[in-house]
Automatic annotation (TrEMBL):
Residues 219-305 form the Reverse transcriptase domain. It holds the Pfam family RVT_1. Coiled coil: none annotated. This is Reverse transcriptase domain-containing protein.
């Protein structure tokens, strides 16, 4: 079912690309013509400021021009991913330097994020028994049954419609807004795909594909470590992830201790920061007993998966 839906979306994308190229060209022409007509009307109004018909005409042209610009802006926002223009056989030193520079940047980005997002140590399959000896908070049978219950059609639809419509570009090009406005057509397939995943635990690579967007952590980034990676997932993946998240959320208060002040609704990570500042104030003045303070490597904790 996953392959079937992905194939349908891929075939639809070809048609939409052709339609998009035609419509964007038409909208650009319309916006230019509307701006020219508005300029002509306002030029006449400068000469005849009391002409009532020209005033009415100006209002109509302003409305038409702003509407055309809004539609064009919405279309361009959907195409806002950075893409290289095809330069054909252009033989210039600038072109080849740009291409070579781009390749080097890509290689360095891949090397860097493979290092911090990969796993450099072998996975120990016996770690579960070790952790069970030190973890005293576990979910109950009722909570386990709640999280493992069957996924319903309404649950999938509600989650899909709760997603932000245009939050980020998806790898397949279809954001949540597309699925919402075409739910009567694609809803049945989406429900089948999501339910199939929860039955089998298998996910097609095309559904699991992501775009890694780099967000600067400092004002003038010059190295890869100055960027934080943000993963942009396909809408189908987001639906699955949010269903899992919604089921886990009610159980978090029972398994995360109160001193862990983040990642739970109603708690703030700033509380522990203020607590540490208070504890460290005058820490060095009282030397009556030996003491030790440790600083956690926050970069490793938040930027690395290892």
């Amino acid at each position: 079912m996953q392959y079937k839906l992905c194939s349908k979306l891929r075939n639809l994308k070809k048609v939409l690309k052709t339609l998009n190229n035609d419509k964007v060209g038409e909208l650009t022409i319309k916006s230019i013509e509307a701006k020219a007509a508005l300029d002509d009307c306002q030029h006449l109004l400068d000469q005849q400021p009391l002409h009532s018909n020209l005033r009415i005409r100006e209002k109509e042209l302003i409305t038409y021009y702003t509407t055309t610009l809004k539609v064009e802006e919405d279309l361009l926002r959907q195409k806002s991913r950075i893409q290289w223009l095809k330069a054909g056989d252009l033989n210039s030193s600038f072109f080849f330097k740009a291409i070579n520079g781009d390749i080097l940047v890509k290689k360095e980005a891949i090397r860097h994020f493979q290092t911090i997002l990969g796993c450099s140590r072998p996975i120990s399959h016996g770690i579960g028994s070790t952790l069970s000896n030190i973890i005293d908070k576990v979910i109950s049978n009722e909570q386990a049954n709640f999280m493992g219950r069957d996924v319903t059609d309404d649950e999938i639809r509600d989650v899909c419609f709760s997603l932000y419509p245009n939050k980020a570009p998806d790898p397949d090009g279809f954001n949540a807004h597309f699925f919402k406005i075409t739910w009567d057509i694609v809803g049945e397939d989406v429900i089948s795909v999501v339910q199939e995943f929860f039955r089998s635990g298998l996910l097609l690579k095309k559904v699991n594909a992501i775009i890694l967007a780099l967000v600067p952590k400092v004002p003038n980034p010059s190295k890869m470590k100055d960027f934080r990676s943000i993963s942009c997932y396909n809408t189908l993946y987001k639906i699955i992830a949010k269903i899992i998240g919604n089921r886990i959320k009610p159980c978090l208060l029972d398994i995360i201790i109160p001193s862990q002040s983040a990642f739970v609704a109603g708690r703030s990570i700033g509380d522990n920061i203020l607590l540490v500042q208070k504890l460290m104030r005058n820490y060095h003045k009282d030397a009556s007993c030996p003491r030790l303070a440790l600083k956690v490597d926050l970069m490793k904790a938040f930027d690395m998966v290892d």
